[in-house]
Amino acid sequence: MARKKVKFTKGELKRQRDSQDRFERYLPTLQLKQQQLQLEVRNVEKLLYLKRVEIDRIKEDMSEWIGILGDKDVDLSPWVRPKEIITSTANIAGVTIPVLKQAEFPKVDYDLFMTPLWVDSAVDAIRKLAELIAETDIIEEQLKLLSNELRITMQRVNLFEKVKIPECKDNIRVIRIYLGDQDTNAVCRSKIAKKKIEEVQAAA
Q: Domain 10-194 falls in which CATH fold?
Protein backbone atom coordinates (compact mmCIF):
# COMPACT_ATOMS: atom_id res chain seq x y z
CA MET A 1 0.00 0.00 0.00
CA ALA A 2 1.34 3.42 -0.93
CA ARG A 3 2.18 5.63 2.00
CA LYS A 4 -0.22 8.48 2.53
CA LYS A 5 1.64 11.71 1.96
CA VAL A 6 2.56 13.46 5.21
CA LYS A 7 4.25 16.75 5.92
CA PHE A 8 7.66 16.55 7.53
CA THR A 9 6.98 19.20 10.14
CA LYS A 10 6.70 19.38 13.92
CA GLY A 11 3.03 20.25 13.52
CA GLU A 12 2.45 17.09 11.49
CA LEU A 13 4.39 15.09 14.08
CA LYS A 14 2.03 16.34 16.80
CA ARG A 15 -1.00 15.57 14.64
CA GLN A 16 0.17 12.00 14.06
CA ARG A 17 0.86 11.52 17.78
CA ASP A 18 -2.58 12.87 18.66
CA SER A 19 -4.17 10.52 16.10
CA GLN A 20 -2.29 7.54 17.50
CA ASP A 21 -3.34 8.43 21.05
CA ARG A 22 -6.96 8.76 19.92
CA PHE A 23 -6.96 5.42 18.09
CA GLU A 24 -5.27 3.62 21.01
CA ARG A 25 -7.69 5.18 23.48
CA TYR A 26 -10.76 4.17 21.45
CA LEU A 27 -9.53 0.68 20.47
CA PRO A 28 -10.23 -0.99 23.88
CA THR A 29 -13.82 0.30 23.73
CA LEU A 30 -14.25 -1.23 20.29
CA GLN A 31 -12.68 -4.50 21.43
CA LEU A 32 -15.02 -4.64 24.44
CA LYS A 33 -18.01 -3.98 22.19
CA GLN A 34 -16.83 -6.75 19.87
CA GLN A 35 -16.65 -9.20 22.78
CA GLN A 36 -20.12 -8.19 24.01
CA LEU A 37 -21.60 -8.59 20.53
CA GLN A 38 -19.95 -11.98 20.04
CA LEU A 39 -21.46 -13.15 23.33
CA GLU A 40 -24.90 -11.77 22.45
CA VAL A 41 -24.83 -13.33 18.98
CA ARG A 42 -24.05 -16.73 20.53
CA ASN A 43 -26.87 -16.27 23.07
CA VAL A 44 -29.37 -15.32 20.37
CA GLU A 45 -28.26 -18.21 18.16
CA LYS A 46 -28.82 -20.60 21.08
CA LEU A 47 -32.24 -19.08 21.85
CA LEU A 48 -33.23 -19.33 18.18
CA TYR A 49 -32.20 -22.99 18.13
CA LEU A 50 -34.26 -23.74 21.26
CA LYS A 51 -37.33 -21.99 19.84
CA ARG A 52 -37.06 -23.97 16.62
CA VAL A 53 -36.76 -27.20 18.61
CA GLU A 54 -39.90 -26.22 20.54
CA ILE A 55 -41.75 -25.47 17.29
CA ASP A 56 -40.77 -28.89 15.91
CA ARG A 57 -41.95 -30.55 19.14
CA ILE A 58 -45.35 -28.83 19.02
CA LYS A 59 -45.76 -29.70 15.35
CA GLU A 60 -44.94 -33.31 16.13
CA ASP A 61 -47.49 -33.39 18.95
CA MET A 62 -50.08 -31.76 16.69
CA SER A 63 -49.47 -34.28 13.92
CA GLU A 64 -51.28 -36.89 16.07
CA TRP A 65 -54.57 -35.02 15.97
CA ILE A 66 -54.33 -32.29 13.32
CA GLY A 67 -56.01 -34.59 10.80
CA ILE A 68 -59.32 -34.43 12.62
CA LEU A 69 -59.62 -30.74 11.82
CA GLY A 70 -60.42 -31.65 8.25
CA ASP A 71 -63.04 -34.15 9.33
CA LYS A 72 -65.03 -31.73 11.47
CA ASP A 73 -67.13 -28.82 10.39
CA VAL A 74 -65.15 -26.38 12.55
CA ASP A 75 -63.04 -23.53 11.13
CA LEU A 76 -60.43 -22.50 13.69
CA SER A 77 -58.68 -19.92 11.50
CA PRO A 78 -60.58 -16.89 12.90
CA TRP A 79 -59.25 -17.66 16.40
CA VAL A 80 -55.71 -18.87 15.79
CA ARG A 81 -54.33 -16.11 13.55
CA PRO A 82 -52.73 -13.28 15.59
CA LYS A 83 -54.59 -10.03 15.09
CA GLU A 84 -51.56 -8.10 16.36
CA ILE A 85 -47.92 -8.81 17.22
CA ILE A 86 -46.88 -6.36 19.93
CA THR A 87 -43.18 -5.63 20.22
CA SER A 88 -40.92 -3.38 22.23
CA THR A 89 -37.23 -2.61 21.83
CA ALA A 90 -34.10 -3.34 23.80
CA ASN A 91 -30.56 -2.02 23.56
CA ILE A 92 -27.80 -4.62 23.36
CA ALA A 93 -24.23 -3.33 23.13
CA GLY A 94 -25.50 -0.18 21.46
CA VAL A 95 -27.80 -2.01 19.04
CA THR A 96 -31.55 -1.44 19.16
CA ILE A 97 -33.35 -4.75 18.62
CA PRO A 98 -37.04 -5.71 18.56
CA VAL A 99 -38.42 -7.84 21.39
CA LEU A 100 -41.73 -9.69 21.42
CA LYS A 101 -44.10 -8.56 24.15
CA GLN A 102 -47.10 -10.62 23.17
CA ALA A 103 -49.21 -11.91 20.33
CA GLU A 104 -52.84 -10.86 20.56
CA PHE A 105 -55.52 -13.17 19.22
CA PRO A 106 -59.20 -12.55 18.53
CA LYS A 107 -61.62 -13.44 21.31
CA VAL A 108 -62.82 -17.01 20.99
CA ASP A 109 -66.51 -16.88 20.20
CA TYR A 110 -68.23 -20.16 19.54
CA ASP A 111 -71.11 -22.17 20.95
CA LEU A 112 -69.75 -24.18 23.86
CA PHE A 113 -72.59 -26.71 23.55
CA MET A 114 -72.36 -27.20 19.79
CA THR A 115 -68.56 -27.18 19.48
CA PRO A 116 -66.52 -30.35 20.11
CA LEU A 117 -64.52 -30.44 23.35
CA TRP A 118 -61.20 -30.84 21.52
CA VAL A 119 -61.53 -27.39 19.92
CA ASP A 120 -60.30 -25.55 23.05
CA SER A 121 -57.14 -27.65 23.18
CA ALA A 122 -56.60 -27.29 19.45
CA VAL A 123 -56.98 -23.50 19.59
CA ASP A 124 -54.51 -23.25 22.49
CA ALA A 125 -51.94 -25.44 20.73
CA ILE A 126 -52.17 -23.65 17.39
CA ARG A 127 -52.03 -20.24 19.10
CA LYS A 128 -48.92 -21.33 20.97
CA LEU A 129 -47.37 -22.41 17.69
CA ALA A 130 -48.30 -19.14 15.97
CA GLU A 131 -46.82 -17.10 18.83
CA LEU A 132 -43.60 -19.15 18.73
CA ILE A 133 -43.29 -18.64 14.99
CA ALA A 134 -43.79 -14.89 15.43
CA GLU A 135 -41.19 -14.87 18.22
CA THR A 136 -38.76 -16.83 16.05
CA ASP A 137 -39.14 -14.27 13.25
CA ILE A 138 -38.28 -11.50 15.71
CA ILE A 139 -35.30 -13.42 17.11
CA GLU A 140 -34.05 -13.90 13.56
CA GLU A 141 -34.24 -10.12 13.11
CA GLN A 142 -32.32 -9.66 16.37
CA LEU A 143 -29.61 -12.01 15.08
CA LYS A 144 -29.44 -10.15 11.78
CA LEU A 145 -29.03 -6.76 13.48
CA LEU A 146 -26.47 -7.97 16.03
CA SER A 147 -24.46 -9.89 13.43
CA ASN A 148 -24.34 -6.85 11.18
CA GLU A 149 -23.14 -4.63 14.03
CA LEU A 150 -20.56 -7.27 14.99
CA ARG A 151 -19.25 -7.33 11.41
CA ILE A 152 -18.91 -3.52 11.35
CA THR A 153 -17.24 -3.47 14.79
CA MET A 154 -14.75 -6.18 13.77
CA GLN A 155 -13.91 -4.18 10.65
CA ARG A 156 -13.23 -1.11 12.79
CA VAL A 157 -11.08 -3.08 15.24
CA ASN A 158 -9.05 -4.49 12.35
CA LEU A 159 -8.79 -1.03 10.79
CA PHE A 160 -7.42 0.46 13.99
CA GLU A 161 -5.15 -2.47 14.88
CA LYS A 162 -3.76 -3.26 11.44
CA VAL A 163 -3.94 0.04 9.55
CA LYS A 164 -4.46 3.25 11.50
CA ILE A 165 -2.21 2.69 14.53
CA PRO A 166 0.68 1.12 12.55
CA GLU A 167 0.34 3.91 9.96
CA CYS A 168 0.61 6.59 12.63
CA LYS A 169 3.60 4.86 14.24
CA ASP A 170 5.34 4.60 10.87
CA ASN A 171 4.61 8.23 10.02
CA ILE A 172 5.93 9.35 13.41
CA ARG A 173 9.11 7.31 12.88
CA VAL A 174 9.70 8.75 9.40
CA ILE A 175 8.98 12.35 10.47
CA ARG A 176 11.29 11.98 13.50
CA ILE A 177 14.08 10.69 11.30
CA TYR A 178 13.58 13.57 8.88
CA LEU A 179 13.46 16.19 11.62
CA GLY A 180 16.47 14.60 13.30
CA ASP A 181 18.40 14.77 10.03
CA GLN A 182 17.35 18.39 9.63
CA ASP A 183 18.58 19.21 13.15
CA THR A 184 21.86 17.43 12.46
CA ASN A 185 22.31 19.27 9.18
CA ALA A 186 21.53 22.56 10.88
CA VAL A 187 24.16 21.89 13.56
CA CYS A 188 26.69 20.94 10.89
CA ARG A 189 25.97 24.10 8.87
CA SER A 190 26.23 26.17 12.02
CA LYS A 191 29.63 24.67 12.84
CA ILE A 192 30.88 25.19 9.29
CA ALA A 193 29.68 28.78 9.32
CA LYS A 194 31.30 29.38 12.72
CA LYS A 195 34.57 27.87 11.50
CA LYS A 196 34.59 30.07 8.40
CA ILE A 197 33.94 33.13 10.54
CA GLU A 198 36.82 32.16 12.82
CA GLU A 199 39.09 31.62 9.80
CA VAL A 200 38.17 35.04 8.39
CA GLN A 201 38.77 36.67 11.75
CA ALA A 202 42.10 34.87 12.13
CA ALA A 203 43.23 36.00 8.64
CA ALA A 204 42.30 39.55 9.40
A: Helix Hairpins (1.10.287)
